[in-house]
Amino acid sequence: MSELLERLAPDDALPSDGFAELRRHAQKILMQHGFPHRKTENWKYTPLTLLQQRSFAGTGEMGPLPAAPELPFDAAVIRMHNGEIDPSATKLPRGTSLTGLVADDVDVDALVADGPNDAFAWLNLARLGQGWKLVVDERVERPIVLLTTVDDAFEGAVHPRLHVEIGPDSALTLVSLQSGGGAGLHNAVLDVRMGERSKMLHVIDRSGGDTVWIEHATVRVAAGASYRAFVSDAGGALTRQDLRVSLDAPEARGAIHGVATLTDRALVDYHTTIEHHVGPSQSAESFRILADDRATGVFNGRILIVPGADDSHSEMNTGNLLLSENARINTKPELEIHAEDVTASHGATIGQLDDDARFYLRSRGLSEREATALLKYGFAAAVFDDLEPGPLADWLLERLKARA
Fold it and tell me: 254-268: per-residue pLDDT in tens?
């Protein structure tokens, strides 16, 4: 693991700019604790062997932009390629602005500094080049698509960082669309700060390929504000998503709904946390994994209700399908409650496709393949029941149908 540390975070001279002190602090923590390993509780199902085998040659410089996908809904676009945002290919709607990040925008209080759990978020800060800040100060009707790609020949390591501020009574739909080949590392950090009574719909659609995708996201939700995430992940060589939602004021609401459809040797690990710091507040979470071939899916969902957060309400469920004898799913829902007068529940299941249901569909004229695909899609699509009907929902469901 020390060799990996030397390749990704060499102890050389760091740039002297506005982030210099933060970089030195992050580098010190990295050198002290190193990267997580199989004995690190939150990483025990996510071996970093693949990273240790890669050289991370190259600088991650901007390559030619691939053609943008056709989207069946009207949207503004932020183009990020090989870890860098291309301002010339970025078009934003009225009421938003995209500027360079400054040191005061970086929140290190959300990171764990006494162990290796948040090592890749510290790595992002230690190797930070140009970060970006997206400000939303009104109700933006058009979705903003953060289109993130890497070259097929990309073998470097990049560490993009985006800070999002949503003003009081403002609204944002952010669609994070990630894809690419290559054999590099895309190690991103997303920080979201929501003002009072603001709303955010956060859609994540990811198909990883050979790229290692690691993302650490933190969302702070103010009074009367609402954050909702909908995730569709097709997996890849290695994907790790940490998502922490902090309900910091009365009437704050947070919800995470996701599905991972995995084949081949894909490895996907989702670690989510919703923290209730004040009551009344509400949260909900549902996550499903479908694992086929030799794929591995990991889901660890944690709900924390701190002392004094009375009248908090939360529910979590995770359902999972093993579609082959060699696939693996590790799932762990957690409830940690330190307050009274709360309601909280969780449930977890791991099973296989219902043979009776498949037989019924076959008896109605569907082929074995069609019947299996329909059952998989019906199981997976249930996590999107709370997504409002419309072009965005239709697009997300069509992509899910193609993967099932």
Answer: 999 999 999 999 999
